[in-house]
Design a protein that fits this description.
heterodimer, A: 251 residues, alpha/beta, 2 domains, six-stranded mixed β-sheet, 11 strands, elongated, B: mainly alpha, Arc Repressor Mutant, subunit A, globular
Amino acid sequence: MTTSSIDQPMELHASDGVLLALYDHQRDGDLESPRRHVEQCAECQARLGAIAARAKHVRMALAAVPTPSVAKDDFRRRVAEARERGDRRVWRRPVWLAAAAIVVLVGAAAALPIRDWVRRRLVESRTAHAPAQPVATPSTQPLNRSGATVSFAASGPGFTVRFDSLPSVGTLTAGRTTADQISARVASGAGTGGDAMVVLPGELLVRNTSAARASYDLLLPSAVTRLRIIVAGRVVFDGAPPTTIPLNRSK
Amino acid sequence: MDRASELFENYHAALYRYLVRLSGDPDLAADAAQEAFVRLLDRAPMGPTERAWLFKVGTNYVLEGRRTAARRSRLLDGRLAQTMGDAPGDPHANVEAEERRRIVMAALSRLSDKERVAILMREEGFSHREIAEAVGTTTGSVGTLLARTLERLARETTFDREAL
């Protein structure tokens, strides 16, 4: 049944979000019903027109922000060099904190603020899976002791643990868990090397120093079938868990 | 074409453009793009989710890096002009282009991170579902977020008082 816009009850008018989804030709969700409504509703058509005008205006406005030209070959060379070094502390800025979906600090550098929406995702993730030790707000609940744990969802069959530096001493013990989340724990030696654990998609980055003496326990769900451990750019383990690896064995 | 070449060809220009707009800082954007590609090349191919993953890593790198007050200040007061792109030859056009760029960057900087990421990802052609995943909301509500942000950004980037 179709109705004119005059007959259409207010609650059937499409929201701005739905109108934008229609304008953007989205395929997720059921847009067929609102699409039929808009075709019959002058008011919604007018609002759709306004949204289209705004979208075009914003596209033109953003074009006013020029993108500096970067020679593709130069960029490829930079990436290749960074990969060869295997050391992300070669950036021009010496204090990089790296790409962090979720940052959990363990040790001295404990009070980094992170964006609210990133924090919210951490809270949601941890609430959903009942972690071993809640860390709802890392900036105010720093994990600065042995036993500190971070839990997070696996993003695929492969998982990488990457250490910035070759530590003074320490081990990583990877075992299995029946839980559906990956769990990393500072087994001992927390705070000896400014350690911080950064959770990235498919990866745990440990920001340690050569003075670090920490050991770690890692529990992996059965869905994770391949583990890579990289220390200071060198792959020290690549295979199926469980395993125990001395982190300083490159010495 | 090897994998690295293919990835650069497919994603580099869009990722860098997005990160420049997100950060207002071409150097930071270049670092973030580099970090994202290094990480991507260390991984096994991910298929259709590769592009979203790349943008996510770059986004997080920028948001972490932009926290310092100095960098935010540089973004807000728009002193990046000299580092951005090739200036047109016409001095008048140059001034006008710079003024437009300053207005847009100031408007972007007033958005929340979530709004800025969402609207800029939309400009790069991501679906509402991908944007929702990136900013941690539902597909149903991301449309409202985008529409509201579009309205605000359009209002705050009206260069010549045209009605919107």
